[in-house]
């Protein structure tokens, strides 16, 4: 399996698992964890919708090294991490 | 049990969603125009049909050298409709519908349902990725059983 396949599997299975773990007893955690959780959930959900739409594009558009690779293989993981980072940053800024 | 149900449900959401969407689309592939569908009456007796090689040749000429170079994946004969569907092994899965008696090209189109079938099974990502749909299927079965357990067990205990 190549790197994009591993990133895809991490985004598909590991990212929601980490978010679920982060969401456990969320009220007891700090503002940063709260923001990271919701940011990650929003990021992963948006990426999942984008991945589903992109995956259903006709096969002629499935050209190697295209936008398809970015959206289908990488978006789930990157959107979760990016969402969590933005969410945490916003929450910390608000707390201040 | 609740946590097992929750964890499995959340972790397999993505792959189950792909399985569901592709499944619905495949169920309605004709209505959605995902495959060429040519209504046709036989133009002659089945015994008078052209040889397979001649029909394959006609299909290859119709799609051009680029697609023909990918080779023929399969030929699906429909004696009742008097036609043959010649499916090429190109990326877009081009299919040519040919009259078996005259060799006339009836339709050239893409078999997008083949692509959906591969996406449904996980095969589109490569060899071994079929395990993704296995994971989704097993997850759905476990989620149904654990969901029923969570619903019924407290009622039975009461």
Report what the structure shows.
The complex is a heterodimer of chains A (about 100) and B (about 160). Chain A is an all-alpha fold and about 100 residues long. Chain A has one domain (about 5-95). Chain A has helices spanning about 5-25, 30-55, 65-95. Chain A is elongated and about 50 Å long. Chain A starts with a helix and ends with a helix. The relative contact order of chain A is 0.21. The longest helix of chain B is centred in the last third of the chain and has 28 residues, at about 130-155. Chain B has a four-stranded antiparallel beta sheet with strand order 1-2-3-4, with helices on one face. The interface between A and B is medium-sized, with 20 and 26 residues.
Run of helices and strands of chain B: HHHHEEEEHH
Major sheet details of chain A:
none
Report Rg of chain A.
15 Å
- Please name the two chains that share the biggest interface, counting residues whose Cβ lies under 8 Å from a Cβ on the partner chain: A-B, 20 and 26 residues
Quote the average pLDDT of chain B. Answer: 89
Concise description?
Chain A has helices at 3-23, 31-55, 67-95. By secondary structure, chain A is an all-alpha fold.
Any descriptors?
heterodimer; A: 96 residues; 0% strand; elongated; B: 158 residues; four-stranded antiparallel sheet
Mind sketching the topology for me?
The complex is a heterodimer of chains A (96) and B (158).
Chain A: H1 3-23, H2 31-55, H3 67-95
Chain B: H1 2-11, H2 13-27, H3 52-63, H4 65-68, E1 72-78, E2 83-88, E3 94-99, E4 105-110, H5 112-121, H6 130-157
Antiparallel strand pairs in B: 1-2, 2-3, 3-4
Helix pairs in contact in B: 1-6, 2-5
């Amino acid at each position: 399996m190549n790197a994009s396949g591993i990133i895809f599997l991490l985004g598909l299975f590991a990212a929601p698992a980490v978010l679920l773990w982060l969401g456990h007893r969320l009220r007891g955690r700090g503002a940063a964890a709260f923001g990271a959780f919701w940011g990650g959930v929003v990021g992963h959900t948006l990426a999942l919708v984008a991945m589903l739409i992109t995956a259903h594009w006709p096969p002629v558009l499935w050209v190697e090294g295209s936008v398809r690779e970015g959206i289908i293989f990488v978006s789930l993981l990157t959107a979760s991490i990016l969402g969590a980072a933005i969410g945490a940053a916003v929450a910390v800024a608000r707390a201040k | 049990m609740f946590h097992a149900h929750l964890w499995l449900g959340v972790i397999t959401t993505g792959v189950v969603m792909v399985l569901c969407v592709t499944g619905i689309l495949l169920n309605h592939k004709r209505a959605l125009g995902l495959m060429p569908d040519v209504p046709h009456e036989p133009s002659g007796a089945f015994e008078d049909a052209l040889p397979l090689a001649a029909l394959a040749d006609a299909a290859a000429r119709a799609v051009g050298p680029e697609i023909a170079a990918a080779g023929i994946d399969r030929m699906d004969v429909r004696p009742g409709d008097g036609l043959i569907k010649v499916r090429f092994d190109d990326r877009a899965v081009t299919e040519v519908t040919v009259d078996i008696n005259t060799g006339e090209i009836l339709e050239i189109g893409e078999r997008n349902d083949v692509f959906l079938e591969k996406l449904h099974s996980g095969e589109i990502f490569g060899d071994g990725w079929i395990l993704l749909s296995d994971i989704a299927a097993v997850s759905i079965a476990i989620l149904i059983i654990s969901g029923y357990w969570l619903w019924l067990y407290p009622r039975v205990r009461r």
